[in-house]
Write the structure tokens for this entry.
Amino acid sequence: MIPVVIVLLVSFIFSSIFKGTDKVDEGFKINYFKLSYRRKMIRTLITIPIISLAFFVIYFYTEASIGANILFGLFFLILFSVQLIYNFYMWKQYER
């Protein structure tokens, strides 16, 4: 539980720090919070195959039940789909 709280706290701090700053729309940036919505969407698309590979590794090397693995996979599929749709929507909003 503590790692989740730490990740949420760090995300909140970085989003507060970089709110209203100029966003980068070209080139590679490690800091997710400095990217434009278009670049965030591209990064989400790039990470989907990596997460899929990680899911298959977890599936084959854990003793979890098939139902638990399916729920785990669906959770991340829904999570990445929502993130992709949100970034696409916001990118189109800022283009106008």
About this structure: DSSP finds three helices and no strands in the chain. Residues 24-95 form one domain.
